[in-house]
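Review form for a predicted model. The reviewer records the input and the model, then writes brief findings.
Reviewer: anonymous (R2)
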Amino acid sequence: MTIRRAVVLFGHGARDPEWANPMRRVRERLLAKADDVAVELAFLEFMQPPLAEAIDTLVANGATRITVVPMFLAQGGHLKHDVPDQVEAARRRHPGCRIDQALAVGEADGVADAMADYARHCVERD
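Model under review:
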């Protein structure tokens, strides 16, 4: 089966490789819930692969629709400027593939609710 839809979980990156472990857990959970979607990780700096490489790999493997999901709490400067430039460059390289950029995960109501629930749980466990 050729997978046409794909997600890139995009993070800032860090020098410590363990920093990406939560993103790896999200990737595994997404793959378990959506076996018809390819999921790759990509990073802005310090870690590999960069966004362009992850997108190129997905397109080479047959993806025709890719959504870049920034694993950031908010829409800061990178997501307002740097990432849209990279996404636009990928669109030019792959005109037959639809490539979209989602809002930062922290902007989603469900994620904010989950963080609030977690904080409440931390207080209540005393």
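Findings: DSSP finds four helices and four strands in the chain.
Further findings: The chain has a mean pLDDT of 95.
Recommendation: see findings above.
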